[in-house]
Amino acid sequence: MPFFESKLSEVERHLFGNVKKTKSVFPEVTLTMEYGLGLMFDLSEDVNEAVSKSVEPNLYANRSLFARNRQLLLNAYFCFLCSAFKQLTA
Predict the structure, then answer these.
(1) Which domain holds residue 59?
(2) N or C: which end of the chain has fewer CB within 10 A?
(3) What is the pLDDT of residue 2?
(4) 36 assigned to some structural domain
């Protein structure tokens, strides 16, 4: 048991259990989403730097849309992890 798990409330412990189950049932999906989120957060730094050096309105609009899409993926990933999945047996 990880150190921090002993200090979790009942709800947090339940969510943490769901995260572990989801990652064990869908390892490829969770890794792909984590990889995509990592790329998007890395790219955010580059986009923000480009915007600070440019005055093009399209770049500002694209940055806003990109930030929204990144947040939507993060929210979807969080909801996916917190869902309770049961492993199907044949």
Answers:
(1) 46-83
(2) C
(3) 57
(4) no
| Matching residue, tokens 């409330």 | 9
The H or E element containing residue 62 is helix 57-82
CA–chain centroid gap for 55, Å, is 30
Q: Give me the number of domains the chain comprises.
A: 1
18 touches 82 (CB < 8 A): yes
Alpha-carbon span 40 to 11, nearest angstrom = 30
Cβ neighbours, 10 Å, residue 81: 19
| pLDDT above 50 (res 90) | no
Question: pTM of the prediction?
Answer: 0.68
Whether residue 1 has pLDDT greater than 60:
no
Residue 83: pLDDT band with limits 50, 70, 90 = confident
